[in-house]
Amino acid sequence: MSMTAIRKKSPQESAGAQPRYVELANTLVRDIQEGRHVVGSLLPTEHELAEQYGVSRHTVRASLKKLEDLGYISRKKAVGTLVESANPDTAFVQSFGTPEDLVRVAATEVRAIEAVRHVTLDRNKARRLEAPVGSAWVLLSGTREDARKAGTPVAQADIYIDASLAGLVDTIRRQPQTLISSLIEREYAVAIDEIRQMVTATLIDAPLAERLGVQAGSAGLRLIRHYKDATGRILEITDTTYPADRVTVAFQLKRGLKPGLSS
What phi and psi, each to the nearest 5 degrees, are found at residue 112? Predict the structure, then answer.
């Protein structure tokens, strides 16, 4: 049996110490993604994992539950724990379709982070973001750029991640094309259970208009998204402003069936 040490946390990660089961879940996810446990194979038993990593079976069960929720594994009685995928897709069930249906933007958009700072939301900012007053966040500010056009800015973005996720900042910088919600799921083994989106009209002020190459005072759309875990806790907030002609908001509504009727 191969031995894989649980990754030593950085000082930033230690500041927001993760539970042992989350740390183990992170290690198992990396082992699956890096091919140490291939798709279609069985993971070691709970007892074997507990001995291998020096943790309790309760910790192992909690870790495996996380991996199952994320779609990496399935657990079948009398069979064992089967590796289902190295890159599972998260499915979101919403009244108006998948997240991709909500706002269609260029697939080539990437983040260009220009500033990072810790913030605590005062009453005005909390009301603007519809987030808890006094909550602590890491704010990553910058633009979204079109990689096909020499990094031309297409939108202004403020991204807030829960202060306990501060250890993700370097990874977010290194992987500008990867959704931050995906990084949260991968690195912290926390499933994003719900995405809430709010869309409002706005006017592009002069400084932002100059950056985005549009006329000052022209129409824009401001999109705020909340990414929540299963308990309803907000882990990420994105506050993005697009010129109106650069984004399309789409909703998909379906008529519900009456009781006793089938399609």
Answer: -125, 90
The Cα–Cα gap between 263 and 260 comes to 10
Cβ proximity of 191 and 69 under 8 Å: yes
In single-letter form, the type of residue at position 249 comes to: V
Q: Which residues contact 195 (CB under 8 A, 6 or more apart)?
A: 92, 94, 99, 102, 181, 225, 226, 227, 228
DSSP secondary structure of 30-45 = HHHHTTSS-TTPBPPP
Whichever domain contains 121, its CATH number is 3.40.1410.10
Are 31 and 116 within one domain?
no
Q: Which residue has the tokens 């633009």?
A: 143
- Please tell me what DSSP assigns to residue 64: H
Look at residues 129, 196, 205, 204 and name the one whose alpha carbon lies nearest to residue 160. Answer: 129
The verdict on 69 and 16 lying in the same domain is: yes
125-175: per-residue pLDDT in tens?
A: 999 999 999 999 999 999 988 776 667 888 999 999 999 999 999 999 998
Residue 224: which residues within 8 A CB-CB, separation 6 or more? 129, 130, 197, 198, 200, 237, 238, 239, 240
Question: Radius of gyration of the chain from Cα atoms?
Answer: 21
Within 10 A of 152 (CB to CB), how many other CB atoms are there? 12
